[in-house]
Amino acid sequence: MPGIRKYRRDTTEVSCCLKYVIFGVNVLFWFVGLIILAVGIWAWMEKDTFSNLSRLTNIALDPVFILICVGTITFIIGFTGCVGALRENTCLLACYAVFLALLLLAEMTTGILFFVFKDWIKQQATSGFQSFIAHYREDPDQQNLIDWIQGEWLQCCGVEGPRDWDRNAYFNCSSGAVGSREACGVPFSCCRSKPQDIIIKNKQCGYDVRKPTYSFDIAKIIYDKGCLEAAEEWFDRNLLIVATSAVCTAFAQILGICFAQNLRADIFAQKSKWH
């Protein structure tokens, strides 16, 4: 019986498995980043931001700006990883590894600073949310973000309570003199949800709730807890989930860096064999 020959993979070959794993994962990130970026640019065009540059004064508070930044970063990382792996381009793979390393460093720095400067971050978050409240009717994206935070996510009202809505020109109690129907009220997202709200959302449930003459029990109509307190409680409840997600994200990024470096080493080894 003839002996069975055993073949050993040439160590200078580029690993197809490694190559297409990097390609497959990053082509997904590439398309996701492109979609996020396109949606962000479209939203800015809908708000006429490019022709009205005065809107850029509050660019840091614009959710669409954050969307564009996230889309751009995701697109660039996905592009360098996808094309770099497919074309076996060591320069693009090096850029991919550097981008992941910088992103990982930024995330770790943010996490450390969050715990070190927790009080300062709380002040900045309070200031930012108060600005959101003041511009609630001026920017539809900020309005939708506040409504989601108050009604869907944290189930709260205002930064520290419903009285914070006095900062908005439409909900200020003195706005009744100029004919604002929302004067001394709160947005509908402050209202406690009811079963019938699934079919038809009552957009007027927050009218007049802060007036001294309001005859109903306010605590049964709207959320009396501020979003700052609600956010702290949410974070305490979900600390394990947040920490696990952060660790998994960091592990995936480290894995991506290692894969890219291993693929680059295979490509260099193959090129040295040819020469």
Automatic annotation (TrEMBL):
Keywords carried by this UniProt record: Disulfide bond, Membrane, Transmembrane, Transmembrane helix
Cellular component terms per the entry's GO annotation: plasma membrane
Membrane listed as a keyword: yes
Membrane-crossing residue ranges in chain numbering: 20-44, 64-86, 93-117
Record-linked Gene3D superfamilies: Tetraspanin
Localisation per UniProt entry: Membrane
Record keyword Transmembrane present: yes
Topological category with respect to the lipid bilayer: Multi-pass membrane protein
Domain of life, per lineage: Eukaryota
A Pfam family annotated for this UniProt entry: Tetraspanin
Disulfide-bond pairs as recorded: C156-C184, C157-C173
Similarity-based family: Belongs to the tetraspanin (TM4SF) family.
Name of the featured protein: Tetraspanin
